[in-house]
Amino acid sequence: MSVSRALKLLAGLVVVAYLAAIGYLRVNEAAYVFEPAARRVGAPSPLFALREQHVTYPSTDGVTLAAWIIPAAPAAPPLNMWMLICHGNLGSIGYAQRPEYYALIRDLGINVLAFDYRGYGESTGNPDERGLYADATASYQYLTGTLGVPPERLVIFGHSLGSGVAIELASRVPAAGLIVEGAFTSIVDRGQELFPIFPIALIATQRFRSLDRISSIRVPKLFLHSPEDAVIPYAHGRRLFEAARDPKRFVDVKGGHEDAFRLDKAVYARAVAQLFRDVMPASARHPAATE
Question: Of 171, 212, 252, 257, which is the active-site residue?
Answer without folding.
Answer: 257
